[in-house]
Design brief:
Blueprint lengths: L4 E6 L1 H8 L6 H8 L4 E5 L3 H5 L1 H12 L3 E2 L3 E4 L5 E5 L3 H11 L23 H6 L3 H9 L2 H4 L5
Parallel strand pairs: 1-2, 2-3
Antiparallel strand pairs: 4-5
Helix pairs in contact: 1-4
Length: 151
């Protein structure tokens, strides 16, 4: 069993499926079946984030006790500026550590599963895609902070 499930990036579609209680893929099935805390880290266009349906879905998740982390605000991939950016991966790690009320360097008692999303069709996408940052967060931490976690 996971200590914490983090949905990052949580698209408007994923948020809607989890809010509706759907279990049509591995991620939404895990969210529906887990007794563990679930943190949702929104990542979408500012207009999608501000949409009434998205706000309703986020409120539904919050009412059910899911943790809402973010979003950040700023420049987006589409060129818009506003809320909807995914939090920086290191910020997500810090929030997870705060959730457990322990310093980030104490990962030994945690079980981590890190996914990089769907397979990429071209190597250059790995280099330029901002979603690969979440999969790289562990390599950006100093070695003492990475040691001990089971992945």
């Amino acid at each position: 069993m996971a200590d914490l499930v983090i949905l990052a990036p949580a698209t408007a579609d994923l948020i809607a499926r989890v809010a509706a209680g759907m279990a049509n893929d591995l991620v939404s099935t895990i969210c529906l079946a887990t007794p563990s805390p679930v943190a949702v880290v929104p990542a979408m266009n500012q207009q999608m984030y501000r949409a009434q349906a998205t706000q309703h879905n986020l409120q539904t998740l919050a009412t059910r006790g899911l943790l809402l982390w973010g979003p950040d605000s700023g420049s987006q991939a589409c060129g818009d500026v506003g809320p909807g950016r995914m939090l920086d991966p290191l910020t997500i790690v810090d929030m997870a550590a705060q959730h457990f009320a322990s310093p980030v360097k104490d990962l030994q008692h945690l079980n981590l599963m890190i996914t990089a999303g769907r397979p990429v069709s071209h190597w250059i996408r790995c280099v330029i895609s901002p979603t690969t940052a979440l999969a790289r967060w562990a390599s950006r931490l100093p070695p003492p902070q990475r040691s001990g976690a089971r992945t």
